[in-house]
Amino acid sequence: MPINIHILGAGAIGQLVGHELVSALGTRVNPILLMRSPQALGAYIKNYKSRVGVSSTDYDGIVHKRYQHLQAYCSPRQFDGPIENLILSTKAHCSAAALQKYVPKLTPASNILILQNGMGVYDMLVERYFQDPATRPRFFQGITTHGAVRVNPHMVTHLGNGAIRVAPIKHQMDTPPEFIQLMMESSVLNTSYLPYSQLLVAQLEKLVVNAVINPLTAIHDCRNGDLLKSSQIKRMMDKIVVESCAIIEKGYPELANIPEAQTVLHPHKLIQTVRQVCETTANNSSSMREDILHLRNTEINFITGHLLKLAKQHKVWSNTNWLLREMVQGRLELNRALETGAVKMIMNRQ
């Protein structure tokens, strides 16, 4: 019998994971996309023949497109039994609402892998749905460095091979559950299983990188590499890193006992890391910039907002990050107002 893996959040990463699991493991695994609506499910079946495509470019510049059939539902009433394995790959701010109707399908034997940008989703879900430890599913945290964007609802461009790192949250499990072991068999996904202390360092490193690049590219409406073309923006980048490191030091005192953290999360090292990411992803448009351009809510409250929450708890200076959050939210509000004004102008001319 194949292992069922439900994927809630059929965006670029969710579909990439489902596609690569089938590519590597065939009938041993059954990834199931959980669509947001009957309309989205109908379009997937009718227009895309229940297939997810992934395109990638080899070293010779040749584009390869591969397709895999993935099962899909849009309601818990469409399938029997509990959800044994769930990958949560929605936008962070959509997690609670998206998960709500599937909560009755989750049991203490269920495994949930959170695979998103930002931090704080686990605590939010526990507070909202799983306060009783006796009935709480087993949670795992994942972070990924894969570059992936959707060029249409079910075609993903894999911009660059990365890795997925996974660790258990709030429980000890030396051997990963079977669905994570299956992910580890895919050479493309490149998944590793770590103790949470090691993952925390990587998670915080990515948080700071995202807290710099995402807001600044959204505010300035530019690609990642463009940030390095302005000396003033580079000074702002450094200031965000230094302030964020001070917040993290107070918010996560356990890092003092993790030798790797002293190097990876040092301000000077993180400044270098942020600039390196800007260089290696120079032509990429950040997810927050894309959200702003398409007038969608952003993940700012789970990236910069997580830092601000820690800063408030521990009374740490956070004015730079506070200003960034205000400017991102203001940019979204402005873009929406301009779009509404343009639509009204066109309608008045008709």
Automatic annotation (TrEMBL):
GO terms for molecular function: 2-dehydropantoate 2-reductase activity; NADP binding. Keywords: NADP, Oxidoreductase. Residues 5-169 form the Ketopantoate reductase N-terminal domain. Its EC number is 1.1.1.169. It catalyses: (R)-pantoate + NADP(+) = 2-dehydropantoate + NADPH + H(+). InterPro entries: 6-PGluconate_DH-like_C_sf, 6PGD_dom2, ApbA, Ketopantoate_reductase, KPA_reductase, KPR_N, NAD(P)-bd_dom_sf. Residues 202-329 form the Ketopantoate reductase C-terminal domain. Catalyzes the NADPH-dependent reduction of ketopantoate into pantoic acid. NCBIfam families: apbA_panE. This is 2-dehydropantoate 2-reductase. It comes from Diutina rugosa (Yeast).
